[in-house]
Amino acid sequence: MTGRLETRADRLARLKAGAFDLLVAGGGIVGAGIARDAAMRGLKVAIVDERDIAFGTSSRSSRLLHGGLRYLAQGRIGLVREASVEKQVVQRIAPNVACPLPFVFPTYKTEPWPLWKLSVGVRIYDLLCGGRNFGRSGSFGPARTLELAPGLRAEGLTGSVRYFDGLTNDARLVTDTLRSAANAGAVVMNYCGLVGAERVSEAWRCRLSDGVSGTDHEVEARGVANAAGPWAPLLSPEVTLRCTKGVHLVVDAARLPVKEAVVMAEGPRILFVIPWGERVIVGTTDTDYEGPLDDIRVDEADESYILGVTNACFPDVKLTAADIRGAWAGVRPLVADSNGNPSDISRSHKITSPRPGWWDVTGGKLTTYRLMAEQTVDRVFQFLGRPRAACRTAGVTLLDASETQFSGILPPPVSREAVQHFCRREWALHLDDVMMRRSSWHYYQSDPARVAADAARWMAEELGWDEDTAAREMERYNAAAGIRQKDTGVHA
User: Fold this and answer.
1) Under a CB-based contact definition with an 8 Å cutoff, are residues 167 and 98 in contact?
2) How far apart are CA 245 and CA 329, in angstroms?
3) What is the pLDDT of residue 118?
4) pLDDT digits (tens, 9 = 90+) for 43-64
5) First vs last Cα of the chain: how many Å apart?
6) For residue 355, which phi and psi values (nearest 5 degrees)?
7) What's the rounded Cα separation, in Å, for the pair 338 and 235?
8) How many CB atoms lie within 10 A of CB 255?
9) What residues does 164 pair with on adjacent strands?
10) How many CB atoms within 10 Å of residue 15?
11) What proportions of the chain, in percent to the nearest 5, are helix, strand and coil?
12) SS3 149
C-alpha cells in the first residue's frame, strides 16, 4: 500500500457519508468473505462488528481446512464435496495462511472405525476432491502406523489410514480477507455494531453504535447481510441456532511430538492432535452450549476430557493440566436441529431472506466461507436488479506477497514492527486484539505476560496511550484471557 494510511476517523467519515449497496453485520470469516466478494464485484460495501474482527468463532476453531471425513461416514456427500473443493481454493488464494496437512487415523479391534471401511472412505474422499487432494490417501499396517505416529497405543492396533486436509490460521484468514476487501473499496469497522435497522422506502436505515467514541450513527444501505454467527438471532428473530461448544488445548510439541496430525477416536467421536510449530493443538469438544457468548470458559471438565482421550491414545505421554500452555473455547453456530448429538448436527449453511433486502447467513464452516459468500452476493445482485457481476474470489489471491510479512500459520516473531503493522493496517485497537487474534502470541509464546507488556508499550507509542490507558489495556487483556482460563495460571 502506498500513500497516507487511512485512519479510523477516515473510515468512520466514509461510513457516515455514503449510501451503501450492502452493509455486512459480523466481522467473522463469513462476513469477511461476503464483504470481499461484494466489493470485488463493484458493490459499495461496509462491514461492521460490535467487537473486534474474528472475536468469536472465527478465532477459536481447530484451524483446519477440511472436507470432513466423518461427515462422509454420516452420508453427507454434498457437504464433503463442497468443502473438499473449497479447501483447495483457500490454499490457492491464501498460501501464506494455508498448507497441506497429512492425518493419520489409527484403527483398533474394538472401536467403531474398522480399517477396511476407512480405507474405502479415504479413497472416496480423494475422489470428492476431484482427484486433486493435497496428497494421495493410503492404508498401512500396525508397524508403519507406529512409525508415522510414535507413541500411539499399540495394543489392539490394526493399522491406519492416512489422508490429507489443510492447516490454517483462522483469525489471520479473517484479517487477510478483510484487508483484501478493504483494498477493493470496502469500509471495515470493528468496535462499531449494528444495533437497529428499519426498512424505509427502498433501503434499510441502520443505526450503528461506535464503541470507541460512544456515539451512534445512521447509515443507509440497500441491503443488509446478517453474518453475526452466534449473535445472529439478536439481529433477526427468525434465526434459530443450535450452538455447540468446542475447546482446544495447546501443549509443547516436546511433550507430544507428532509430525503429522493424528485422529483420536473416542467411540463415534473424533478429536485431533495437530502439530503447530513448537506447539501442538489438541481438541475439540462438542457439547451443547447455552451460556453467555462473551464469556465462554474452558473448565476442568473440558480439560479432563481432552487430556483423558489424549493419554488413552498416547499412554506414555501422561499429560496433566500442568502441561497446558494455552487454551481457547468457542461456539459453533449451527443451523438449529434439536435431534441427535452435537457431533451429528449438519455443518451445512443456510441463506434466508425474511424481509426485502435482508439476508440471514447461518451455519456452515470455516472451510466453505468463500462459497457461502458467493451464494449470498449472488442473491444481493438478484435483489438489486443488476446484471450479476462474475465472482472472482476463487481465482484472486487475498493479498500480494509483499503484504503478508506478519501473516502466517505460525505467529510472527515478537517485534515492535509487527505491532505497528497490526495497529496501522489491521485495525487493532486493544492489547487483546494483538495478543490473541492478530498474532496468536498469547497462545504460542513461552512467556505471554512478558510479551504482552512489550506489546502494550509499543501500542502506547503507536496509539498515544498514557500510563493509565496502558494499565487499563493490561487489565482488559488479563480479563479477556481469564474468560478462557482457570485461576491456576493456564494461559487461554
Assistant:
1) yes
2) 7
3) 92
4) 999 999 999 999 999 999 999 9
5) 34
6) -140, 155
7) 22
8) 15
9) 102
10) 20
11) 40, 25, 35
12) coil
CA–CA gap between residue 214 and residue 154 (Å, rounded):
60
Q: What DSSP assignment string belongs to 417-477?
A: HHHHHHHHHS---SHHIIIIIIS-HHHH-S-HHHHHHHHHHHHHHHHT--HHHHHHHHHHH
Query: Which residues is 188 bridged to in the sheet?
Result: 47
Residue type, 462: E
Concatenating the DSSP letter of every residue in 257-291 gives --SSEEEEEETTEEEEEEEETTEEEEE---EE--S
Asked if 491 and 441 touch (Cβ cutoff 8 Å), the reply is no
The interaxial angle of helices 29-40 and 369-384, nearest 10 deg, is 50
Cell triple for 304: 479432563
Q: Is 142 exposed, middle or buried (0-12, 13-18, 19+ CB in 10 A)?
A: middle
pLDDT reading at 323 higher than 70: yes
User: Cα angle at 207 between 202 and 208, to 5 degrees?
Assistant: 130
Beta bridge mates, 327: 249
pLDDT at 338 over 60: no
pLDDT tens digit string along 254-307? 999 999 999 999 888 899 999 999 999 999 998 999 999 988 989 999 999 999
Neighbours of 9 (CB within 10 A): 10
Instruction: Write the DSSP assignment of 63-121 as a string of letters.
Output: -EE---HHHHHTT-HHHHHHHHHHHHHHHHH-GGGEEEEEEEEEEETTSS--HHHHHHH
Is 393 in contact with 36 (CB distance < 8 Å)?
Answer: yes
- Cβ–Cβ < 8 Å for 345, 360: no
What is the distance between the alpha carbons of residues 256 and 275, in angstroms, rounded to a whole number? 9
Grid cell, residue 152, equals 500411539
Contact between residue 319 and residue 310 where contact means Cβ atoms under 8 Å apart: yes
Question: What cell was used for 355?
Answer: 424481509
Q: Are 186 and 45 in contact (CB under 8 A)?
A: yes
> In this predicted structure, what is the pLDDT of residue 347?
66
Q: How many alpha carbons fall within 13 Å on the CB side of residue 377?
A: 31
Write out the three cell numbers for 216: 451512534
Q: For residue range 121-133, list pLDDT tens digits in order.
A: 999 888 887 777 8
Give the separation between CA 114 and CA 430, rounded to whole angstroms: 49
Phi/psi of residue 103, nearest 5 degrees: -120, 130
